[in-house]
Amino acid sequence: MGIFSRLGTLIKSNLNDLISKAEDPEKMLNQVLVDMRNQLIEAKKQVAVAIADEKRLKKQLDQETATAQEWERKAMLAVRAGDDGLAKEALVRRQEHDGLAAQYQQQWDQQRDAVEKLKDALRALNAKIEEAQRKKNILIARAKRAEAQRTIQQTMQGLQNASAFETFDRMAEKVDMLEAEAEAGLELTDGMSGDMLKQRFNQLEAGPGVDRALEDLKVKMGLLQAPSAAPAQLPAASEAAPEPAPQLESGAERPQGPRPSPLRGRDK
């Protein structure tokens, strides 16, 4: 193979590859539909011309038929008038128009069959265009879905890079270290500058919590008996004893009962 043949093959292959990459399915399908619709318009024009020819032939056929009938009527009129020579001439004219009518009949039959075939082809073309429209929508949806899947796949391939995840892990460890240092500093600050006595009492109050929970668990398991009820609290000082009755001072007169009436003594 010569150098020029190889160079030509290389150029063609590169051009075909560029064209294939530049092809957009949606744009290509839209262009195909535009071309098909233009063909449909041209086909409709051709069918319209054929229909017009058919109507013209039919009109000429009817005209020749009517003319032949008119010459026949004239021949009958000449026969009634007793003019056979004139009747023969009228019949000759009738035969001429009958021949033309027969030719127009043949042409009209052929044109009518051709028009029917053209109409069928036009309907088939219209159906194909409608089917192409439906397929176009499906193909465009499939193309967009494939493009989305390819984009997602490329994104996933980019996420599989280990350096990005290593950066996230390193930053997470750094944040954990900062939080631990902050908590340690806060604990040291509270332990060194806080009220030690208050802290001891807080520890004392929080200490029995675990022991009490353990004791409740043993009672629940039946290993210990429930503690007896706590003794009733003593009443408050204000409620314990009633107020003492007021005592009379020494020398004060006590209240006496009613004195006997002197009249009663006299009666006795």
* Terminal Cα span: 180 Å
- What is the CA-based Rg, rounded? 63 Å
> Looking at the structure, what is the overall shape?
rod-shaped
* Topology order in helix (H) and strand (E) letters: HHHHHHHH
Largest sheet: none
Helix-residue proportion = over 70%
Number of strands: 0
The chain-level mean pLDDT equals: 74
How many helix segments?
8
Structural class: mainly alpha
Unreliable runs: 232-258, 260-268
Provide the β-strand percentage band: under 5%
Tell me what you see in this structure.
This protein has a domain at about 25-160. Helices cover about 80% and strands about 0% of the residues. It has 8 helices and no strands. The protein has helices at about 5-20, 25-80, 85-160, 160-195, 195-205, 210-220, 235-240, 260-265. Helix 2 packs antiparallel against helix 3 (about 85-160). Mean pLDDT is about 75; it is low at about 230-260 and about 260-268.
What is the topology?
Elements: H1 3-22, H2 25-81, H3 84-159, H4 162-193, H5 196-206, H6 208-221, H7 237-240, H8 262-267
Helix pairs in contact: 2-3
Task: Give a brief outline of the structure.
This protein is mainly alpha-helical.
What keyword list fits this structure?
268 residues; disordered C terminus; rod-shaped; mainly alpha; 8 helices
